[in-house]
Write a structure and sequence with these properties.
Blueprint: H1 4-20, E1 27-29, H2 32-43, E2 53-63, E3 66-76, E4 86-90, H3 96-111, H4 120-130, H5 136-151, E5 155-163, H6 169-181, E6 185-189, E7 194-201, H7 202-213, E8 220-229, H8 233-239, E9 245-247, E10 253-257, E11 260-262, H9 265-274, H10 280-285
Parallel strand pairs: 6-9
Antiparallel strand pairs: 1-2, 2-3, 3-4, 5-7, 5-8, 6-7, 10-11
Helix pairs in contact: 1-2, 5-7, 6-7
Length: about 300
């Protein structure tokens, strides 16, 4: 006999996923009749064992400023969440070996979670945070683009980077030292989220990006890169909007969770505006910038 309490949990998770992914191209139940049967079984309308719920999720993940679709095939055994769901990842960007590897890692992750708790949302988050480690085609494309920039003589570039967070003191030290070593100007903004802007000779900007992207990040994204052809070093310096590279902080606000702190975003917007970069606020953070009252 199937535990109705577990089936109720499954239905609640399906409803949650439907609200998270309302587009039918994102979330699709393989056999809608299975949901109907489970509802009837819970209500006592039928006594036969209902079909298991299975569905397909198409998750769009941004990798190196490019969108990649990862498909998650999921089946919920009647005993879920007291047992592990059946999941499988596939993507056109994954080779056969990469697909095998990522599915083995995801299986290990799910097996290590506490039983009795719904975990499909955790599965989605794991994919969003880790899929970039396994997709080499996407990385190769990004590297090809960067190498193309780097081979051009006398190019000026400005690069904007968004990170889930920047806390670690060694990582922050590396960012500043590498930018200064490569004679780049700009700034880094630690905290959550973390922001980095570097500008200078294109090949140096490319080298900086190559170095930082290989550090251990929860998530890091190249939000925008602008390139301008130049004729002389004098023209390069005229294009700079920052006179040096430094780590900035703007009225840091702590929220009582250890390292969890945020900047005063009104002051950040004012800083960007003063360097003719105010338009990047929305690109980086997804919201319109506003100056702090009194400015």
């Amino acid at each position: 006999m199937v535990d109705k309490t577990l089936l109720e949990l499954q239905l609640s998770e399906v409803e949650m996923l439907s609200s998270m992914f309302p587009d039918e191209n994102e979330f699709k139940i393989d056999d809608p009749a299975s949901v109907h049967e489970i509802r009837e079984y819970i209500d006592g309308t039928v006594t036969f064992t209902p079909k298991q719920i299975s569905f397909t999720l198409n998750i769009t993940v941004e990798l190196q400023n490019l969108n990649t679709v990862v498909t998650l095939l999921c089946g919920l055994p009647h005993g879920y969440p007291e047992c592990v769901p059946k999941v499988f990842i596939r993507s056109q960007q994954l080779s056969r070996e990469e697909q095998k590897h990522v599915n083995a890692e995801l299986s290990d992750y799910l097996t290590g979670l506490d039983r009795g708790e719904l975990c499909i949302n955790q599965c989605i988050e794991w994919i969003q945070e880790n899929i970039g480690k396994y997709i080499t085609v996407q990385q190769s494309l990004q590297d090809k683009q960067i190498n193309t920039h780097a081979t051009k003589d006398k190019m000026f570039s400005r690069l904007w980077v968004h990170s889930h967070h920047i806390y670690h003191i060694v990582k922050r030290k590396n960012i500043v030292e590498w930018a200064q070593e490569l004679e780049l100007s700009g700034f880094s903004l630690p905290g959550k989220p973390g922001i980095i802007c570097v500008e200078g000779e294109s090949k140096s900007v490319s080298e900086f990006w190559t170095r930082i992207k290989h550090l251990n990040w929860k998530k890091i994204t190249m939000k925008q890169r602008d390139d301008v052809a130049i004729e002389t070093d004098d023209n390069l310096d005229k294009l700079r909007r920052f006179d040096k590279f430094e780590e900035k902080d703007f009225d840091v606000q702590s929220f009582g969770h250890g390292r969890d702190y945020h900047m005063n975003w009104g002051l950040v917007f004012t800083f960007l505006e003063s360097h003719q970069c105010g338009d990047m606020f929305k690109t980086l953070l997804g919201i319109e910038g506003k100056m702090t009252k009194g400015q």
